Amino acid sequence: MNTGIRTAKFETEPFTCPSCINKIETVVGRKPGVESAQVMFNSNKVKVSFDEAVVTADEIADSITKLGYPVLGQKVN
Asked: Are the C-beta atoms of residues 47 and 8 closer than 8 Å to each other?
């Protein structure tokens, strides 16, 4: 059992197109330590499961921001 797996939800500015989903899910999903990345288009959130021993929530938020989708808030469980 890996206890380092966390789930974070990042609130972003509104998404403008479906290609935003693929762009974020692909880039974030390929980061080392990220198990899954899911964009919730209608709620302007990105849900990410990740290994905090490999990558931090702040690093993931930075990746999303660099793609052009500023992170307005984040909650990590």
From this structure: yes
